[in-house]
Amino acid sequence: MMYSVAYKILNNSEDSKDVVHQAFIIIADNFKKIKSIPCPELKPYIVIIVRNVSINMYNRNKRKAEHNVDIENYEVPVEIEFYENNDYDSLLSSINTLPLIYRD
């Protein structure tokens, strides 16, 4: 039941499993409080926990997707000419001229 509630919100199997895991942790952390809930009210209470955790994960995933940058279209200005004109030996000699603490 917990998995199906999470999957209906997230449409992702792995995220739904994570939500069920997090819900069990919340239930375990609040076991004394949950133990006092009457049996007919326990199932809706657990569904609410799973629903809230699922919505939080959905929002987190949505924010993460908005912040991701399409790497293929993102160009970092790299000065290729610098790397083509400097060879390994000149780089090594430049490093050797540095003080020992910077050389490492």
How would you summarize this macromolecular structure in one to three sentences?
The chain has helices at 2-10, 13-29, 31-35, 39-67, 80-85, 88-96, 100-103.
Structure characterization notes:
This protein is mostly helical. It is 76% helix and 0% strand. The chain contains 7 helices and no strands. The longest helix is centred in the middle third of the chain and has 29 residues, at 39-67. The termini are far apart.
* Mean pLDDT figure: 84
User: Main β-sheet, in a few words?
Assistant: none
Count of strand segments: 0
Which spans have pLDDT < 50 for at least 5 consecutive residues? Answer: none
Number of helices: 7
Radius of gyration: 27 Å
What structural class do helix, strand and pairing data support?
A: mainly alpha
The percentage of residues in β strands lies in: under 5%
Distance between the termini: 57 Å
Q: Element order, helices and strands?
A: HHHHHHH
Percent helix range: over 70%
Shape: elongated
